[in-house]
Amino acid sequence: MPELYALIIAGGVGARFWPRSRRDRPKQCLEIGAGKSLIRRTVDRLSPLIPPERIFVVTAASMAPALAKLLPEIPSERILVEPTGRNTAAAVGWGTAAIAAQVGGDPSIAVLPADHVIVDDHELRCLLADAALAAQNGALLTLGIDPTRPETGFGYLELGPETGRHGGHVFRQVARFVEKPDAATAQAYLKGGKHLWNAGMFVFQASRLAGAFQAHLPQMWDAIQALVAYPDRLKLLYPTLEKVSFDVGIMEKAEGVMTTRASMGWSDLGSWEAVAKHLPELPGGRGLGRVIAIDSENNMVHAPGKVVALLGVRDLVVVDTGDALLVCPRDHAQRVREVHQLLQDEGLEYLL
Amino acid sequence: MPELYALIIAGGVGARFWPRSRRDRPKQCLEIGAGKSLIRRTVDRLSPLIPPERIFVVTAASMAPALAKLLPEIPSERILVEPTGRNTAAAVGWGTAAIAAQVGGDPSIAVLPADHVIVDDHELRCLLADAALAAQNGALLTLGIDPTRPETGFGYLELGPETGRHGGHVFRQVARFVEKPDAATAQAYLKGGKHLWNAGMFVFQASRLAGAFQAHLPQMWDAIQALVAYPDRLKLLYPTLEKVSFDVGIMEKAEGVMTTRASMGWSDLGSWEAVAKHLPELPGGRGLGRVIAIDSENNMVHAPGKVVALLGVRDLVVVDTGDALLVCPRDHAQRVREVHQLLQDEGLEYLL
Fold first, then answer.
1. Which residues touch A113 (CB under 8 Å, ≥6 apart)?
2. Sign of the CA dihedral running A84, A88, A91, A93
3. Contacts of B122 (CB under 8 A, 6+ apart)
4. CB atoms < 10 A from the CB of A169, how many?
5. Mode of pairing for the β-strands spanning B140-145 and B195-205
6. Which residue is closest to B311 within chain A, CA to CA?
7. Binary contact (B309, A335; C-beta < 8 A)
8. H/E/C letters for each residue in B259-278?
9. Nearest of B37, B44, B48 to residue B70 by alpha carbon
């Protein structure tokens, strides 16, 4: 199989993890539940398939210092720092062009989010190795996750005909991409068995992606080529790149997109609600911190180093940091994004 | 009218105000809502009727340093420090004997809790002055509060015949004391108009109280006389005093107890629930701290210096200190006492 490179996308803040996540301490830098940060675990699980010397990271300026500290083995030339966020098409395009320029030839690249949970690391490595083989025929690969709930917050992949097998994995065409569906559609997808979640993990050869960019985002690709050739123009050119997601800008439009079922205990850890089950049991629920509870249950507490007393409460999320505190019901955890917006409106940017 | 002395009872921790209240920072030392501590306000509202030089305080050893700091004008000989808490009969008895010993003669004494809220300070002074006149006839006076709700947590005074008037106040015999009634009885008292709350504020002449102690707690009185005469025996004798409340040990048994209606905006601030209405309005409810709120209402937040985000919650009490956090529904606020007990059981005494 081809030597595989990893491009880890680590540009998001993780607004729904406020107050724990901050611009300089984003979700991927947090030790949510485990003793290691999500980005550290993302790097570690790739070995030995993709050792650190073949790992690149795209991140934001505000996060770069924390990231560099967590990943001491990744030298600065492989940490690509965006002068400003331009969404994922720009990040994947720049990362791909930068890898190709640094390593030469036509490298195989796996794009991976920095802030997801994967339980079965071995299976991920098998999937990536098999997908890299499948990509040698010129396919763009996206890993698909079997839905376990009628989630309306994800994009879906509609499965097309089988295209072949590599290792233990069956590959199929993606008939089409479906943006976040409504509840009834999501329920139908869950029952139908013909749709997978689009989990934001991609495998392709650099030349194939370049072709897709030239076909669907040609202006962006020209600018990316220029800023890779002339790194001193990064701050000038990067902010001009179109803000569009990699899914919408490339994957949904490209021909020959394939997928395979990835069964590896995946979670995007989308909110505190999703984190809860990864945290240890405590009186009154799950979490971190010293919790004492009276007539309380099913709460999610994240307050390391603090004593939290719960009295007569259930289904609450309680997250405490030194300077800020969040209290909301578990079924409102997705809405923590709104708190982020409100902090900006209220002149509390220092807490973002 | 006679010169009146104040005996301020400041021995309680205020367990229901955890985590704000601690053994060394009890409820009466807290600035709950206002810019001054409750004990500071208790002293200030007595002037000019009872100036600081006629004020005595009974307190616990753990609280004495904080108290001395808040009341710099009260010299240490007038701050009576209990070696160990022995309930209120001992505190009132010792305080009365100590005042009589220090000032000589037969002083008139007003016993006042340190941790209540009184809105109309002027009316309190009028009440105490008139009560002191009534007490010159040998009565034991207890101030009564017109019930405003069917409270089952207080003792009640059943009104007897009128005994006379002083100033603008009508005095009546107390026909009997009623310990904490059940809900139906409390409801009947609220409607009947013949019962007042027993608010723990008393006025009497020292000699009259001595007589009541000799009649109803003679052993305790002998011990108190001894420890006042020989202060070096305080640590030896005080722990031997019977643990009984002043109401049960003296007032309920004594003859000639009188009361008058005290209409002065009184509250015992029994819990965070009672505190709420004294705190400023905030997004999502009332409290202290920087609160931002989305779809939240009627919460009570006490988190000075912290940013608290409330999202989709109502009727909650949220109290944050540097080391501890309490979350409970407002209608469970009385149960914060149970948290106090649980902290002891869990080996978290350092947070008491």
1. A8, A9, A42, A199, A200, A201, A268
2. negative
3. none
4. 20
5. antiparallel
6. A328
7. no
8. EEECCCCEECCCCHHHHHCC
9. B37
Average pLDDT for residues B100-106, to the nearest whole number?
A: 96
Identify whether the C-beta of residue A257 lies closer than 8 Å to the C-beta of residue A251.
Answer: yes
- Type of residue found at B351: L
Question: Which residue's entry shows tokens 């020959």?
Answer: A256
Confidence (pLDDT) at A31? 84
pLDDT in tens, B151-210: 998 999 999 999 999 998 999 999 999 989 999 999 999 999 999 999 999 999 999 999
Which of the 8 DSSP states describes residue B280? P
Q: Which of A221, A214, A226 is nearest to A253 (CA)?
A: A214
Helix (H, G, I), strand (E, B) or coil at A347: coil
pLDDT of residue A33: 67
- What is this model's ipTM? 0.88
Q: Which of B312, B316, B339 sits opposite A309 (nearest CB)?
A: B339
Residue A27's nearest CA partner among A255, A295, A272 is: A272
Partner-chain contact A312 B290, CB within 8 Å: no
Q: What is the pLDDT of residues B110-142, one digit of tens each?
A: 999 999 999 999 999 999 999 999 999 899 999
Q: Do A311 and B346 touch (CB under 8 A)?
A: no
Is B329 at the interface with chain A, CB within 8 A? yes
Q: Are A229 and A98 in contact (CB under 8 A)?
A: no
Interface probe for B, chosen from A282, A288, A301, A327 (most Cβ of B below 10 Å), is: A327
Residue A176 CA to residue A159 CA, distance in Å, equals: 8
Residue A66, SS3 per DSSP: helix
- Spatial CA neighbour of A151 closest among A199, A111, A87: A199
B98/A contact by beta carbon, under 8 A: no
**Tokens describing residue B105:** 């003669």
Residue type, A89: A
Q: b/e per residue, A87-106, with b = 16+ CB within 10 A?
A: bbbbbbbbbbbbbbeeeeee
pLDDT score of A70? 96
Please list the residue range(s) of chain B that carry CATH number 3.90.550.10. Answer: 4-267
Q: Provide the token pair at B151.
A: 């409270």
| Residue bearing tokens 């409460």 | A313
| A116-162: pLDDT as tens digits | 999 999 999 999 999 999 999 899 999 999 999 999 989 999 999 99
Q: How far apart are CA B343 and CA B74, in angstroms?
A: 34
Q: Report cis status (omega within 30 of 0) of the bond before A48.
A: yes
CATH number of B4-267: 3.90.550.10
- H/E run at residue B237: helix B234-237
> How far is Cα A313 from Cα B15, in angstroms, rounded to an integer?
20
Using CB atoms, pick whichever of B19, B294, B328 lies closest to residue A335. Answer: B294
Cβ partners under 8 Å of residue B53, min gap 6: none
Q: Phi and psi for B170 in degrees, rounded to 5?
A: -90, 130
Structure tokens at B291: 């609160």
Residue B1 CB contacts under 8 Å (≥ 6 apart), including other chains: B129, B132, B133
Residue keyed to tokens 């947070």:
B351
Residue B246, CA distances (Å) to A185, B8, B111 in order = 71, 14, 11
Interface contact flag, B18 A309, Cβ < 8 Å = yes
Q: What is the total residue count of chain A?
A: 352
What is the nearest CA distance from B150 to chain A, expressed in angstroms?
23
Q: What token pair was written down for A261?
A: 């079922």
Q: How many residues does chain B have?
A: 352
Q: Which residues make Cβ contacts (< 8 Å) with residue B254, sequence separation at least 6? A: B140, B212, B215, B216
